[in-house]
Design goal:
Distance between the termini: 50 Å
Shape: elongated
Strand order of the largest sheet: 4-3-5-15-6
Number of domains: 3
CATH architecture of the largest domain: 3-Layer(aba) Sandwich
CATH class of the largest domain: Alpha Beta
Order of helices and strands: HHHEEHEHHEEEEHEEEEHEHEEEH
Helix content: 25-40%
Strand content: 15-25%
Number of helices: 10
């Protein structure tokens, strides 16, 4: 298979423009169109829908795109192993991450990454709703959940400790809980309808006290699906919530939030993971971005 034609197809899919993709690769528009047409004939499917103003991926093109990216990545990796290829990392990196974490810690450092790698382009999908990496053709994802999908590989970025906290005015109204059992008498805020959190209190006698922060409990008065909304609801005095320390460490430091039951561990061993599809070669663009995040965030997390 013509890997240069595959590069042209991937570039055209990213840019939604065949002429612009051809220019990036040093091809005249007519030559680029002819090469893509030849690729489509060779695989027996129309990969792109063309109009006078733009192109769009066909259903077959959507299915073929992840494999085209993988073939290119494997060729680049093979050339790199032989000391060939470009010294400068280039290409578009599709990255998905929770919106709140990205706004606080990733977006502020991206200008430096883009300056260090002028040949790279970042296509970000920022949402607290998890997406499928393979179906979405993502190169890399940041997740705050254990690695369970066998089709993915991952590297641990940083701890993701959760802390029970509430606003001072809520605690003035409703009092401070002294034990896990006391939480039954308080208003709770939960993140997501189907994500109960394990609460463990280490006792001096060695017997652990265990409870659940369950979104379906009667005293769970508010359920949100966005990390920033969880923090804002806690700051507004809506109840007690298990917020990520990376999200609320400044509010805890300046007193706008108070940690309750500090001896309670929430979702022990939770961590932030950088995940990528197992089937893909770890391409240069993924490797340099992972190394950048590990250096800037993982070595000394700002919230710890």
């Amino acid at each position: 298979m013509d890997t240069e034609a595959l590069r042209l197809f991937v570039r055209a899919a990213d840019k939604r423009n065949i002429s612009a993709a051809g220019r990036d690769l040093g091809l005249a528009p007519a030559v680029a169109s002819a090469r893509l047409a030849k690729l489509e004939r060779s695989i027996g499917a129309d990969l792109l829908h063309r109009s006078t103003r733009k192109v769009a991926l066909s259903q077959e093109g959507e299915a073929f795109l992840p494999y085209a990216r993988d073939i290119i990545a494997r060729e680049d990796a093979a050339r790199a192993a032989l000391g060939q290829g470009q010294a400068e990392v280039t290409g578009t990196l599709r990255f998905t991450a929770p919106s709140t974490f990205a706004q606080l810690y990733i977006l502020p450092i991206l200008p430096q990454f883009l300056a260090d790698h002028p040949g790279m382009r970042l296509d970000l999908h920022l949402s607290d709703q998890q997406v499928d990496l393979i179906e979405g053709s993502f190169d890399l994802a940041l997740r705050n959940a254990p690695l369970k999908d066998s089709s993915l590989r991952g590297r641990r970025l940083a701890p993701d400790q959760r802390v029970l906290c509430a606003a001072p005015d809520y605690l003035a109204r409703c009092g401070w809980p002294e034990t896990l059992a006391d939480l039954a008498d308080h208003d709770l805020i939960a993140f997501g309808r189907n994500s109960p959190r394990h609460l463990v209190s280490r006792t001096e006698g060695g017997a652990d006290e265990v409870a659940m922060l369950d979104p379906m409990a009667e005293n769970c008065r508010l359920i949100v699906d966005d990390g920033l909304s969880l923090k804002l609801a806690t700051l507004a005095g809506a109840g007690i919530a298990a917020n990520a320390r990376w999200s609320v460490h400044q509010e805890l430091r300046d007193g706008r939030l108070q940690q309750v039951l500090p001896d309670v561990q929430v979702d022990e061993d939770a961590a932030l993971w950088l995940l990528y599809p197992r089937a893909n070669v770890l391409s240069a663009k993924v490797r340099v971005f992972m190394d950048f995040l590990l250096a800037k965030i993982g070595r000394a997390p700002p919230w710890m």
